[in-house]
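How it folds:
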Amino acid sequence: MKKIYYSIGEVSDIVELKQHVLRYWETEFSTLSPSKNRAGNRVYRDKDILLVRYIKHLLYDKKFTIEGAKQRIKEIKTEDLKKFSLTKSEESKDVKVSKQQLDYLIRELKKGLTDILQILED
């Protein structure tokens, strides 16, 4: 069963970044704003993780500056985010899923991407 919310520690492990980097990026990228639970802890959703992966790609792989990455995110297209829905190790695995599971994953990915686009447009 897939989780709806992830802690900053879990996200840090998933995207292979230190927690302080994630917190810093929240101050730099207004589109990255995970909710907080009643205890005040950050809770990330899939759309937040997808955005973190995209920011990481822009900064680390494409060598954008923070300002350049901010500008690129304003111009973002859905197609650009699709490739960041899986980690590189997940992409290389030969994963077998049922049609029902695949349909569910596609629906969830579309929903997450739509949410990101809505955030970016606001």
Summary: Residues 99 and 105 are 10 Å apart (CA to CA).
